[in-house]
Amino acid sequence: MFLENTVNHKEQFGWIEVICGSMFSGKTEELIRRLKRAKFAKQRVEIFKPSVDKRYDEEKVISHDSNEIRSTPVPAAANIPILADGCDVIGIDEAQFFDDEIVRVCNDLANKGIRVIVAGLDMDFKGNPFGPMPNLMATAEYVTKVHAVCTRTGNLAQYSYRKAKSNDLVFLGETDEYEPLSRAAFFKAMMRDKVRNINVTDAQEVSSKSKRANA
């Protein structure tokens, strides 16, 4: 359960909230909702995102539903503390693309009394824990895992299946490149990809052996 109110108001420390899930699960939507509520309460808010993320806008954080909020793009996590001075609430989008330093940065900010809200993919396109997200989730007071709807089964989806032919870990894309899948659908899709790759490799080996035999 996510709780926003502390019991002991004399405690000066802040906390970390992590919003995680697959692509198209509403992570950024929830991040924007919490940040806008803080702004409405007249709290000093600053939002950051990795400068590599330029899909919708170079500066704004924009959800798939076109909700948006102004942000500051930064090349590395180490830039955040300098720009976060004097803030009550810090928002960080696409945290999986930051270096491991983001974990220390978030904890340092929380220890200074700042509420830190982080959103990011918990797994990469292979279904493995993504970058610094596991450590952020482990050190956070609150973790909210949101789900998309599987495009093939209609069940809850927690995996981001990559349709595009790329093995790069960082590969920005939308519905043309990714689709959210349930565990069963993701497993079947990955097995089909593996079989397809094996067939291609075997064909290449047979062709190569045949050429050597005829030489």
The CATH homologous superfamily: P-loop containing nucleotide triphosphate hydrolases
How many beta-strand runs?
12
Unreliable spans: none
- For this structure, the quaternary state is single chain
At the fold tier of CATH, the topology name is Rossmann fold
CATH architectural designation: 3-Layer(aba) Sandwich
How many structural domains?
A: 1
* Percent range for β-strand residues: 15-25%
What is the chain-wise order of helices and strands? EHEEEEHEHEHEEEEEH
Q: Please write the CATH class name.
A: Alpha Beta
Main beta-sheet annotation: 6 strands, parallel
Mean pLDDT: 84
Distance between the termini: 69 Å
Strand order of the largest sheet: 5-2-6-7-1-8
**Nearest-angstrom radius of gyration?**
21 Å
Task: Work out the helix count.
Answer: 5
Instruction: Please bin the fraction of helical residues.
Output: 25-40%
Q: What would you call the shape? A: elongated
Which class of secondary structure composition applies to the elements?
Answer: alpha/beta
Characterize the structure shown.
- There is one protein chain.
- This protein is elongated.
- The protein is built from 5 helices and 12 strands.
- A hairpin with a 6-residue loop joins strand 9 and strand 10.
- The protein is of the alpha/beta class and 215 residues long.
- The mean pLDDT is 84.
- It has one domain: Rossmann fold (3-Layer(aba) Sandwich), CATH 3.40.50.300.
- The relative contact order is 0.17.
- The termini are far apart.
- Helix 3 runs parallel beside helix 4.
- It has a 6-stranded parallel β-sheet with strand order 5-2-6-7-1-8, sandwiched between helices.
